[in-house]
Amino acid sequence: MNTPVRGRITAAFTDAGTTGALCATDIDTGADITLAADTPVSTASVHKLCLIATLYREAAAGRIDPTTPVDIPAAPRAPGPTGLAVMRDAARLSLRDLASLTIAVSDNAAADILWDHLGLDTVNATMTALGLRRTTAVHNQATLYATMVTDTGETGPGALVDPAAVARLTVLDPTRTNRSTPKEIATLLAAIWRDEVCGGAWGEELRAVLGVQTWSHRLASGFPFDDVRVCGKTGTLPTLRHEAGVIEYPDGGRYAVAVFTRAASTAATLPAADAAIGRAARIAVDALRARA
Known about the structure:
The protein is an alpha+beta fold and 292 residues long. The protein contains 10 helices and 9 strands. The strands form 3 sheets. A 5-stranded antiparallel β-sheet has the order 2-1-9-8-7, with helices on both faces. Strands 3-6 form a two-stranded antiparallel ribbon. It has a two-stranded antiparallel sheet with strand order 4-5. Strand 1 and strand 2 (32-35) form a beta hairpin. Helix 2 (48-60) packs across helix 5 (120-129). It is globular. The protein starts with a helix and ends with a helix.
């Protein structure tokens, strides 16, 4: 990667008050643009990509049927701001519809039902089988949130913007929480788009599910074009803002991009940090396209 491109990506992060790590890969040629791409990171909800990829790989192998319906009681459910996590009544959904909720609105309750069905060991074994040996899940969403309560000693949102409390959060330490590297997450996405995770109808459905995310303020903000498709999955924890996804151009260009950032500020709302993810991704993808 040439120095001017690395400098522009670093500046995009710095100008937003963040540090960042990035891997952008041309899915068809393997060419890449990287910045600290082998650095271990706390994945937050980006790890849901590993969960959903495992569901569909298991389906393709005939070990699970994603159309299986699941009865979901009203409580208890994993905490979160969206989806089943904030719904009050019992529900009945298939595993693949739970997958859609997991991606579309990062539904923690839906994700934990899938974690329960698949198991952490199965997801981790799938990542290992794909060669992603630094991508590891150590807890589901409910446990992740529980560790934050334990670490801060509080349950209110104020604890998650207090610098002293944030400094105690083990979920920000990639040696103690769900983790990966930007390179491995980009590699996973490229494998999904090349049918290396699963092929045929299940591979097509997996990519369709990964295209339903509603958030457009991070990765997609760097590609404001009607004819460019962005599939992504965000991840957010105090000071952490991430997104990984695939950008597809009408000329057939396909790029897997993983961006992980950490802000100096503990503020919950930092639009500049969100926008920096899209800006950095665009710089990297433009550089890859210029090589073609």
